[in-house]
Model the fold of this input.
Amino acid sequence: MAGMRAMHSAGAACAGSMSSSGLVERAAEAVVARQRSRAGAGRAEALYSFEGFRKAFAGSAVVGVVLSDADLKVLIRYLERDKKAVVVDKDVIKFVESATPDQLEITFVDRGILELKNAVASLSAQVDNIHQKIDGCTAKASDALRAKRQAAALTYVRSRRQLEGLLKQRLGSLEILQSTLIRVEAAADDIQILKTYESSTSTLKALLADPALQRDTVDKTLDALAEATADAREIDDAIRVGGDMARVEAGVDLDEDELERELAALVAEGEQEAREKDKERSAKDKAKEQEQEAAETEELERRLAGLKTGTPTEGKRTPVLESDTA
Done:
Protein backbone atom coordinates (compact mmCIF):
# COMPACT_ATOMS: atom_id res chain seq x y z
CA MET A 1 0.00 0.00 0.00
CA ALA A 2 3.04 2.31 -0.10
CA GLY A 3 2.13 3.48 -3.59
CA MET A 4 -1.45 4.15 -2.55
CA ARG A 5 -0.25 6.06 0.53
CA ALA A 6 1.86 8.16 -1.79
CA MET A 7 -1.19 8.72 -4.00
CA HIS A 8 -3.21 9.66 -0.94
CA SER A 9 -0.55 12.14 0.12
CA ALA A 10 -0.40 13.66 -3.35
CA GLY A 11 -4.17 13.89 -3.53
CA ALA A 12 -4.71 15.21 0.00
CA ALA A 13 -6.31 18.36 -1.34
CA CYS A 14 -9.14 16.37 -2.91
CA ALA A 15 -9.22 13.35 -0.61
CA GLY A 16 -9.21 15.21 2.71
CA SER A 17 -9.11 12.83 5.66
CA MET A 18 -10.18 9.82 3.61
CA SER A 19 -8.18 6.65 4.28
CA SER A 20 -6.15 4.92 1.58
CA SER A 21 -8.76 2.16 1.23
CA GLY A 22 -11.45 4.81 0.84
CA LEU A 23 -9.42 6.50 -1.87
CA VAL A 24 -8.90 3.18 -3.66
CA GLU A 25 -12.66 2.54 -3.58
CA ARG A 26 -13.40 5.98 -5.02
CA ALA A 27 -10.87 5.47 -7.77
CA ALA A 28 -12.31 2.02 -8.55
CA GLU A 29 -15.86 3.35 -8.76
CA ALA A 30 -14.73 6.13 -11.11
CA VAL A 31 -12.94 3.62 -13.36
CA VAL A 32 -15.95 1.26 -13.46
CA ALA A 33 -18.33 4.15 -14.20
CA ARG A 34 -16.17 5.39 -17.05
CA GLN A 35 -15.80 1.90 -18.47
CA ARG A 36 -19.57 1.33 -18.36
CA SER A 37 -20.05 4.51 -20.40
CA ARG A 38 -18.16 2.72 -23.19
CA ALA A 39 -20.37 -0.38 -23.06
CA GLY A 40 -21.57 -1.54 -26.45
CA ALA A 41 -18.59 -0.06 -28.33
CA GLY A 42 -17.10 -3.51 -28.99
CA ARG A 43 -15.15 -6.23 -27.26
CA ALA A 44 -11.88 -4.37 -27.80
CA GLU A 45 -13.05 -1.59 -25.48
CA ALA A 46 -13.10 -4.06 -22.57
CA LEU A 47 -9.49 -5.17 -23.11
CA TYR A 48 -6.40 -3.28 -21.98
CA SER A 49 -2.70 -3.78 -21.65
CA PHE A 50 -1.14 -2.17 -18.58
CA GLU A 51 0.08 0.69 -20.78
CA GLY A 52 -3.39 1.13 -22.26
CA PHE A 53 -4.96 1.05 -18.80
CA ARG A 54 -2.53 3.76 -17.67
CA LYS A 55 -3.38 6.00 -20.63
CA ALA A 56 -7.11 5.49 -20.12
CA PHE A 57 -7.44 5.88 -16.34
CA ALA A 58 -4.27 7.21 -14.65
CA GLY A 59 -5.37 10.82 -14.98
CA SER A 60 -9.11 10.39 -14.46
CA ALA A 61 -9.53 7.89 -11.62
CA VAL A 62 -8.98 10.54 -8.91
CA VAL A 63 -9.68 14.21 -9.57
CA GLY A 64 -6.51 16.28 -9.53
CA VAL A 65 -4.19 13.28 -9.19
CA VAL A 66 -2.19 11.33 -11.79
CA LEU A 67 -1.74 7.79 -10.51
CA SER A 68 1.69 6.20 -10.55
CA ASP A 69 2.35 2.68 -11.82
CA ALA A 70 2.38 1.41 -8.23
CA ASP A 71 -0.96 3.10 -7.57
CA LEU A 72 -2.41 1.58 -10.75
CA LYS A 73 -1.30 -1.91 -9.73
CA VAL A 74 -3.03 -1.50 -6.36
CA LEU A 75 -6.14 -0.22 -8.15
CA ILE A 76 -6.17 -3.12 -10.63
CA ARG A 77 -5.78 -5.60 -7.79
CA TYR A 78 -8.73 -4.01 -5.96
CA LEU A 79 -10.87 -4.10 -9.12
CA GLU A 80 -10.07 -7.79 -9.57
CA ARG A 81 -10.27 -9.05 -5.99
CA ASP A 82 -12.90 -6.82 -4.33
CA LYS A 83 -15.03 -5.32 -7.11
CA LYS A 84 -14.94 -8.40 -9.38
CA ALA A 85 -14.93 -5.92 -12.26
CA VAL A 86 -11.86 -7.21 -14.10
CA VAL A 87 -9.93 -10.39 -14.72
CA VAL A 88 -6.18 -10.19 -15.16
CA ASP A 89 -3.79 -12.58 -16.87
CA LYS A 90 -0.22 -11.29 -16.99
CA ASP A 91 -0.30 -8.13 -19.10
CA VAL A 92 -3.96 -8.46 -20.18
CA ILE A 93 -6.73 -6.69 -18.25
CA LYS A 94 -10.33 -7.51 -19.15
CA PHE A 95 -13.44 -5.76 -17.81
CA VAL A 96 -16.32 -8.17 -17.25
CA GLU A 97 -20.06 -7.53 -17.09
CA SER A 98 -21.25 -10.98 -16.00
CA ALA A 99 -19.99 -14.05 -14.20
CA THR A 100 -20.29 -16.42 -17.16
CA PRO A 101 -17.33 -18.78 -17.71
CA ASP A 102 -16.29 -17.13 -20.99
CA GLN A 103 -16.25 -13.78 -19.20
CA LEU A 104 -14.17 -14.95 -16.25
CA GLU A 105 -11.22 -16.04 -18.34
CA ILE A 106 -8.98 -14.38 -20.90
CA THR A 107 -9.08 -16.43 -24.10
CA PHE A 108 -6.78 -16.48 -27.11
CA VAL A 109 -9.50 -14.49 -28.91
CA ASP A 110 -9.22 -11.78 -26.26
CA ARG A 111 -5.44 -11.69 -26.71
CA GLY A 112 -5.78 -11.48 -30.48
CA ILE A 113 -8.29 -8.63 -30.23
CA LEU A 114 -6.03 -6.78 -27.78
CA GLU A 115 -3.04 -7.17 -30.10
CA LEU A 116 -5.07 -5.72 -32.96
CA LYS A 117 -6.31 -2.91 -30.73
CA ASN A 118 -2.74 -2.05 -29.67
CA ALA A 119 -1.55 -2.18 -33.29
CA VAL A 120 -4.34 0.19 -34.34
CA ALA A 121 -3.46 2.55 -31.49
CA SER A 122 0.24 2.44 -32.41
CA LEU A 123 -0.44 3.12 -36.09
CA SER A 124 -2.85 5.93 -35.20
CA ALA A 125 -0.10 7.54 -33.12
CA GLN A 126 2.34 7.16 -36.04
CA VAL A 127 -0.17 8.78 -38.40
CA ASP A 128 -0.62 11.71 -36.04
CA ASN A 129 3.15 12.08 -35.73
CA ILE A 130 3.60 12.02 -39.52
CA HIS A 131 0.90 14.70 -39.87
CA GLN A 132 2.80 16.88 -37.42
CA LYS A 133 6.07 16.36 -39.31
CA ILE A 134 4.38 17.24 -42.61
CA ASP A 135 3.00 20.42 -41.08
CA GLY A 136 6.46 21.21 -39.71
CA CYS A 137 8.11 20.73 -43.11
CA THR A 138 5.46 22.92 -44.73
CA ALA A 139 6.04 25.69 -42.20
CA LYS A 140 9.85 25.46 -42.53
CA ALA A 141 9.64 25.53 -46.33
CA SER A 142 7.50 28.67 -46.16
CA ASP A 143 9.96 30.30 -43.75
CA ALA A 144 12.89 29.39 -46.02
CA LEU A 145 11.16 30.89 -49.05
CA ARG A 146 10.49 34.10 -47.17
CA ALA A 147 14.18 34.17 -46.19
CA LYS A 148 15.23 33.66 -49.85
CA ARG A 149 16.78 30.24 -49.01
CA GLN A 150 15.68 28.30 -52.04
CA ALA A 151 17.84 25.20 -51.43
CA ALA A 152 16.59 24.78 -47.88
CA ALA A 153 12.99 25.22 -49.04
CA LEU A 154 13.47 22.47 -51.65
CA THR A 155 14.89 20.16 -48.97
CA TYR A 156 11.85 20.65 -46.78
CA VAL A 157 9.50 20.12 -49.73
CA ARG A 158 11.35 16.89 -50.60
CA SER A 159 11.04 15.71 -46.99
CA ARG A 160 7.36 16.54 -47.00
CA ARG A 161 6.80 14.43 -50.13
CA GLN A 162 8.58 11.50 -48.53
CA LEU A 163 6.48 11.91 -45.40
CA GLU A 164 3.31 12.09 -47.49
CA GLY A 165 4.27 8.80 -49.15
CA LEU A 166 4.90 7.23 -45.76
CA LEU A 167 1.61 8.65 -44.50
CA LYS A 168 -0.23 7.02 -47.39
CA GLN A 169 1.33 3.66 -46.53
CA ARG A 170 0.51 3.98 -42.85
CA LEU A 171 -3.05 5.02 -43.57
CA GLY A 172 -3.46 1.97 -45.80
CA SER A 173 -2.12 -0.30 -43.08
CA LEU A 174 -4.30 1.41 -40.48
CA GLU A 175 -7.40 0.91 -42.62
CA ILE A 176 -6.61 -2.80 -43.01
CA LEU A 177 -6.02 -3.25 -39.28
CA GLN A 178 -9.20 -1.38 -38.35
CA SER A 179 -11.22 -3.44 -40.82
CA THR A 180 -9.67 -6.64 -39.48
CA LEU A 181 -10.43 -5.61 -35.89
CA ILE A 182 -14.05 -4.91 -36.79
CA ARG A 183 -14.42 -8.31 -38.48
CA VAL A 184 -12.77 -10.14 -35.58
CA GLU A 185 -15.04 -8.39 -33.06
CA ALA A 186 -18.09 -9.19 -35.20
CA ALA A 187 -17.08 -12.85 -35.45
CA ALA A 188 -16.52 -13.05 -31.68
CA ASP A 189 -19.93 -11.46 -31.10
CA ASP A 190 -21.48 -13.91 -33.58
CA ILE A 191 -20.02 -16.78 -31.58
CA GLN A 192 -21.53 -15.35 -28.41
CA ILE A 193 -24.89 -14.91 -30.13
CA LEU A 194 -24.84 -18.49 -31.40
CA LYS A 195 -23.96 -19.74 -27.93
CA THR A 196 -26.95 -17.81 -26.64
CA TYR A 197 -29.14 -19.39 -29.33
CA GLU A 198 -27.82 -22.81 -28.37
CA SER A 199 -28.51 -22.21 -24.69
CA SER A 200 -31.99 -20.90 -25.46
CA THR A 201 -32.70 -23.93 -27.64
CA SER A 202 -31.61 -26.29 -24.88
CA THR A 203 -33.78 -24.45 -22.38
CA LEU A 204 -36.79 -24.59 -24.69
CA LYS A 205 -36.28 -28.30 -25.34
CA ALA A 206 -36.02 -28.98 -21.62
CA LEU A 207 -39.29 -27.13 -21.04
CA LEU A 208 -41.05 -28.96 -23.86
CA ALA A 209 -39.83 -32.27 -22.45
CA ASP A 210 -41.77 -31.64 -19.26
CA PRO A 211 -44.59 -34.23 -18.91
CA ALA A 212 -47.10 -31.45 -18.40
CA LEU A 213 -46.46 -30.23 -21.97
CA GLN A 214 -46.86 -33.61 -23.68
CA ARG A 215 -49.59 -33.68 -26.34
CA ASP A 216 -51.78 -36.23 -24.54
CA THR A 217 -51.51 -34.32 -21.27
CA VAL A 218 -52.34 -31.03 -22.99
CA ASP A 219 -55.38 -32.57 -24.72
CA LYS A 220 -56.63 -34.10 -21.47
CA THR A 221 -56.15 -30.85 -19.61
CA LEU A 222 -58.00 -28.82 -22.25
CA ASP A 223 -60.83 -31.38 -22.38
CA ALA A 224 -61.13 -31.26 -18.60
CA LEU A 225 -61.16 -27.47 -18.73
CA ALA A 226 -63.91 -27.47 -21.36
CA GLU A 227 -65.96 -29.94 -19.29
CA ALA A 228 -65.53 -27.86 -16.14
CA THR A 229 -66.54 -24.73 -18.04
CA ALA A 230 -69.68 -26.45 -19.35
CA ASP A 231 -70.57 -27.64 -15.83
CA ALA A 232 -70.13 -24.12 -14.49
CA ARG A 233 -72.36 -22.75 -17.24
CA GLU A 234 -75.08 -25.32 -16.44
CA ILE A 235 -74.91 -24.41 -12.76
CA ASP A 236 -75.22 -20.70 -13.60
CA ASP A 237 -78.22 -21.39 -15.84
CA ALA A 238 -79.87 -23.48 -13.13
CA ILE A 239 -79.34 -20.77 -10.52
CA ARG A 240 -80.73 -18.10 -12.85
CA VAL A 241 -83.82 -20.19 -13.73
CA GLY A 242 -84.42 -21.00 -10.08
CA GLY A 243 -84.15 -17.36 -9.16
CA ASP A 244 -86.66 -16.37 -11.84
CA MET A 245 -89.10 -18.99 -10.60
CA ALA A 246 -88.67 -17.84 -7.02
CA ARG A 247 -89.42 -14.24 -7.99
CA VAL A 248 -92.55 -15.34 -9.85
CA GLU A 249 -93.76 -17.34 -6.87
CA ALA A 250 -93.10 -14.41 -4.58
CA GLY A 251 -94.95 -12.05 -6.87
CA VAL A 252 -91.97 -9.84 -7.43
CA ASP A 253 -91.38 -10.78 -11.00
CA LEU A 254 -92.40 -7.77 -13.07
CA ASP A 255 -92.47 -7.21 -16.76
CA GLU A 256 -89.68 -4.89 -17.90
CA ASP A 257 -92.04 -3.02 -20.25
CA GLU A 258 -94.46 -2.50 -17.40
CA LEU A 259 -91.67 -1.14 -15.20
CA GLU A 260 -90.66 1.28 -17.93
CA ARG A 261 -94.25 2.46 -18.39
CA GLU A 262 -94.61 2.96 -14.63
CA LEU A 263 -91.39 4.92 -14.55
CA ALA A 264 -92.54 7.06 -17.47
CA ALA A 265 -95.84 7.71 -15.67
CA LEU A 266 -93.98 8.79 -12.53
CA VAL A 267 -91.85 11.13 -14.58
CA ALA A 268 -94.91 12.59 -16.33
CA GLU A 269 -96.68 12.99 -12.97
CA GLY A 270 -93.71 14.81 -11.56
CA GLU A 271 -93.58 17.11 -14.57
CA GLN A 272 -97.33 17.78 -14.28
CA GLU A 273 -96.98 18.68 -10.60
CA ALA A 274 -94.13 20.99 -11.45
CA ARG A 275 -96.23 22.71 -14.15
CA GLU A 276 -99.19 23.11 -11.77
CA LYS A 277 -96.94 24.58 -9.10
CA ASP A 278 -95.52 26.99 -11.66
CA LYS A 279 -99.04 27.91 -12.78
CA GLU A 280 -100.19 28.41 -9.17
CA ARG A 281 -97.12 30.49 -8.42
CA SER A 282 -97.76 32.58 -11.54
CA ALA A 283 -101.42 33.12 -10.54
CA LYS A 284 -100.38 34.26 -7.07
CA ASP A 285 -97.79 36.59 -8.49
CA LYS A 286 -100.34 38.01 -10.93
CA ALA A 287 -102.95 38.53 -8.16
CA LYS A 288 -100.33 40.25 -6.03
CA GLU A 289 -99.43 42.52 -8.92
CA GLN A 290 -103.11 43.32 -9.51
CA GLU A 291 -103.60 44.14 -5.81
CA GLN A 292 -100.55 46.38 -5.89
CA GLU A 293 -101.79 48.12 -9.03
CA ALA A 294 -105.25 48.59 -7.47
CA ALA A 295 -103.71 50.06 -4.33
CA GLU A 296 -101.58 52.42 -6.38
CA THR A 297 -104.62 53.42 -8.47
CA GLU A 298 -106.68 54.01 -5.33
CA GLU A 299 -103.90 56.12 -3.81
CA LEU A 300 -103.62 58.16 -6.98
CA GLU A 301 -107.37 58.76 -7.14
CA ARG A 302 -107.39 59.80 -3.49
CA ARG A 303 -104.66 62.33 -4.10
CA LEU A 304 -106.43 63.71 -7.13
CA ALA A 305 -109.63 64.05 -5.12
CA GLY A 306 -107.72 65.89 -2.41
CA LEU A 307 -106.35 68.34 -4.93
CA LYS A 308 -109.81 69.05 -6.26
CA THR A 309 -111.35 69.67 -2.82
CA GLY A 310 -108.29 71.40 -1.38
CA THR A 311 -107.90 68.69 1.24
CA PRO A 312 -104.24 67.84 1.87
CA THR A 313 -103.26 64.31 1.17
CA GLU A 314 -100.65 62.21 2.86
CA GLY A 315 -97.26 63.18 1.68
CA LYS A 316 -98.52 66.37 -0.09
CA ARG A 317 -99.39 69.86 1.24
CA THR A 318 -101.77 72.43 -0.42
CA PRO A 319 -99.88 75.49 -1.66
CA VAL A 320 -100.22 78.50 0.68
CA LEU A 321 -101.25 80.99 -2.03
CA GLU A 322 -104.09 78.78 -3.18
CA SER A 323 -105.26 78.37 0.41
CA ASP A 324 -105.28 82.12 1.06
CA THR A 325 -107.06 82.84 -2.15
CA ALA A 326 -109.73 80.37 -1.29
